[in-house]
Please model this.
Amino acid sequence: MCGIVGYIGYRDAVDVILQGLQRLEYRGYDSAGIAVCRENEVCILKEVGKVAELAARVKEEQLQGCQGIGHTRWATHGGVTQANAHPHTDGEKRITLVHNGIIENYMDLREKLQARGMLFATETDTEVVAKLLSHLLQEENSLEEALVLLQENLVGSYALVVLDAQNPEALYAVRRGSPLVLGMGEKEAFCASDVPALLPYTRKVFYMEDGDMACIRREGITLYDSSGKEVHRKMHTIEWDVSMVEKDGYPHFMLKEIFEQGGVLRATLKDRIRDGRVFLDPELQWDPELVQSWDQLHIVACGTSYYASLAAARMFEKWTNLRVLVDVASEYRYRSIQPDRKTLAVFVSQSGETADTLAAQRKARENGAHCLGITNVRGATLSREVHSILLLKAGPEIGVAATKTFMGQLGVLYLLALYLGACRGTLPEHEERSLVEEFIQLPYRVEKVLSRGDEIARIAKEYSGYGDFLFLGRGISFPVALEGALKLKEISYIHAEAYAAGEMKHGPIALLDTNVPVMVIIPRDDLYEKTLSNIEEARARKAPILAVGTEGDELLEKHARSVFYVPWTHSELTPFLTVLPLQLFAYYVALERGCAIDQPRNLAKSVTVE
Model:
């Protein structure tokens, strides 16, 4: 979850690293640090707080150099202090390194190193790695040999980037479990936790695989496997451009990304519709016999990706004859579920690096399931490990609270459900064509909703002082309620719970009074009247009612204090529209409360450790 940037080349490494860290600040933000080679010594500066505090200190110290590493921290081992911030050293002024991940056996290693007389200045697992590497070098190993031995001693997940004071012409990187991407330019090279840090300088990247080590020089990058044998990895050309990781006039990345969702849906549909039907053959290349062999579908994800999966699961149930299971990755991997060769297992992860999702995928694959990854990052670990992949095409998402990737995930999952229904003969062609026709209109309907964002801002201002919310929805609107409550919790720090509306009487109704507003997602669908009855039950307890409904529903205004209307669409497609007011509501409530919207406390964009 931490952010790493490394550079070697002809530019000022300080500028490259600081700008890269700012682009990765969504990955970790409680402290930041930088190490730069200058006149045959390594100079280190660390600060508690955001990258801006580090940048101010760097300016005071006039730090410069053409080789260096930087880090933003999301604390795991040890408190948020300047000493615990990265980079860490071996204490001998030779090894300096940064680390993303968790070393599970660090206490055992620390005790063994202390027994050899080594002293420790911090509480972190990362300092243990630096000391251990220094110890291995003292046994007359080359750095490459020492890194092989280091991997044999470490248990856990890690991405490491190492400066060696005795070899100022290279950086060294090691990757196991935590993501690390390498970039190559003209007489310069880079490494980072994520692509956005590299976009101003290069689009030519290599994704390191588990166990890979790299020697990074101005002239080129050499990759080795965990045994030290040289290997070759495919170079990828990133399709994103630097403008995609700029705010483009918006006050926050989250707001920009909310307003990009019409374009995200267009990108999702592009080249995936042919003659009025869903066309995924070029991407999936599934044999018809394979598709017919499946009798169950597992969809596995975390957080927002899980809620998108819950919504789409209802469409798989409706359009296919598969038995559908949706589970949280951190639970799926430890349950006694036995996927087999008759299972299509779908793993949904924006980053493609979510630790629990990757572990769940490995379990399903070992059991013989056909694994499909749905991710936003070509070349991510998930995309390399699965049998099949569908990309979101959403572009980089910088805001920690997922918005446009939820829209992209819904889009891809729905297309997959339509495609499977058609391939298996369980969805009539005329119904598929009708849904696809309406799908094509969705981006315009999304933009129509977003054009009325000022209405949501006014409602949000009215309700921003409340400390508790209840979100309700039935059927396909229940996962939307879950996502809406999550957004409000994530960025405004308001306690919000979501329930299936029919469950309100089974406990949550005890919470209701004048101080607990109820947000109800109630499009005009088959469950409308039942949801309306739930609104009445909440009104009877004097709870303020907010509602998201369908245009033309005048009755709703008689039951709710505040109503936001979305355009009509097929009932199956309403989540694409009803989620938008909830995203905007969370954003404007957080804005009114003065919260750190793009970098909410205690959260990181990609959870790359268990």
User: Anything to note?
Assistant: The mean pLDDT is 92.
